[in-house]
Amino acid sequence: MSSIPTSATSLPTAPVPPADGTAQAGYYQRHIFFCLNERKNGEACCAQHDAFAGFDRCKQRVKEAGLAGPGQVRVNKAGCLDRCAAGPVAVVYPEAVWYSFVDAQDIDEIVESHLKNGKVVERLLTPPHLGR
Questions:
Q1: How far apart are CA 11 and CA 35, in angstroms?
Q2: Three-class HEC string of the chain
Q3: Which residues of the chain have pLDDT under 50?
Q4: Is the pTM of this model over 0.90?
């Protein structure tokens, strides 16, 4: 895994697509994927930690902030991201920054700091050793 930028570091931005809506390689500046996996066998999973609420909150906040759409941010559902022990988790690409979150305030901080301003929220970083 590459080194994780600090909160003092601005992250690079991807090219913004043309205003005419034509697609290109950098169609979205960032994607945030939320693990919404639910295990039926009782094993730890993000769904046990209300990951759906975090996903819904993020979609709402991104939209309210005017960050949704081409050239900006896409909020995505994901199946198992294999970081169950740190759940619930979300990962922001293209930077590959992993977050563990607890509540709506954590999501708000990720949206404002990282998705809007390109600054990593260090206090919410998923510890690198936590996997499944």
A1: 23
A2: CCCCCCCCCECCCCCCCCCCCCCCCCCCCEEEEEECCCCCCCCCCHHHHCHHHHHHHHHHHHHHCCCECCCCEEEEEECCCCCHHHCCEEEEECCCEEEECCCHHHHHHHHHHHHHCCECCHHHECCCCCCC
A3: 1-9, 12-18, 21-23
A4: no
